[in-house]
Amino acid sequence: MDSENYKECQSMQRPPLFEANCFIYWKNQFETYVKFKDIDLWHIIVYGDYKPTIKNKDTGNKQVKDNKINLFVQKYEEFVIFNDETIDWAFARFNTIITSLKALDEFFSSHNHVKKFLGALPTKWRPKVTAIEESKDLSTLPLDELIGNLKVYEVVLEKDSEASKVKKEKYKSLALKAKKVSSDEKESCSGSDEEYATAEVLKKSGQKESKPIKTPMSSETKLTRDEDGDSVDNTKYRGMIGSLFYLTASRPNIMFSVCLCARFQEDHKPSHLEAVKRISRYVKGTTHLELWYPKGTRVETIVYVDSDHAGDYVDHKSTSGVCTFMGCCLTSWFSKKQTALTMFTTKAEYVSPEKASKQALWIKQALVDYDIKLDDIPVFCDNKGAIDLSKNPVLHSRTKHIEIQHHFLRNNVQKGNISIVTVSSEDNIADILTKPLKREPFNLLRLGPGLMEPNT
């Protein structure tokens, strides 16, 4: 017979070749055979000298049979399939136990065989086991059919494993290549991801040697489409925006400026590029600032909201800003242009608390899983008209232009889930997310989210 047709211990129709790599199989077969023929002989092999007790022939035969049954029942109950074991090899071991029990007139039902084999499979087979249990009737499922299904899935696992190895090798190769390029350029990329992103921003914008600036955007900046301006390299501009967006995950003080510049990625001009370079110069001068998260803070949710009515100079839509705190720790923030054009300040200010209330209620519900129950969550807003509208249960003519979906806020105020609280514009932390500010109010509001020097 051609030995290439027999892979290592993987043939279910015929036993594997009597070779060193199949030692475990033949060892188990030899042990099973000797125990089946003469249990006393097995004791002599294992323990050396063994003196069997002289018994009546019939009694001795029955005792030997009972010992054999107990031995194979124990093997049946303790049967486990190993991670690196194929289905063919595992079934060969399992079938040997079943056959030995049948020879001793000890039978288990086919239903028990199916459940036992499924339960013996390793953890990586759990999805397949669950699928079989849900789609098949285990009480009538033949063992041969089960083995066939498992062998098909085994091929899928092998392909996934090979694909995963190829993917890992590919990523490893790319990582080594990136490391080599970085070494060739003599760029110092050590430190945190944020430091690396900051270095990338300064590199792409060409501001490494520039002088730092105190605010990310001038309060007099009015970005428009600038149709008369010359076009700018798309790749460079979008690369700078992408790197700055990464920094907004830990720097709420540049969120508004970056989002505003990102609106012109499709058709940007020199004026937009200069605005991005100014943000880069501000980032260079504020690398020492970090978000402060003190220990032992109380678990209570507070939300600040603000809106800049018709602040966009292109389509005159409003910009919403939301800051959410857990105690004194800033947990989430966003600056986003509203989708609809609002004719009145009240509507623009009313939409922002509505968006904030959804996030606040989600946090409130999530904390219930940790046995933390909050009372009404305060939402701080600086617009009296929006606050009055949230508390007014009557829909009159002045509110007909507001979509019904935004009255979600008023419904939850009436239910006591949230409460709208007045705050002055000077103390509204979310103001930093809706418009460019002058230096003094900007630096003051920057402290609100907890952006400060580590040793302060």
Automatic annotation (TrEMBL):
Residues 201-232 are annotated as: Disordered. The lineage of its organism: Eukaryota, Viridiplantae, Streptophyta, Embryophyta, Tracheophyta. This is Copia protein. Residues 201-212 have a biased composition (Basic and acidic residues). It comes from Tanacetum cinerariifolium.
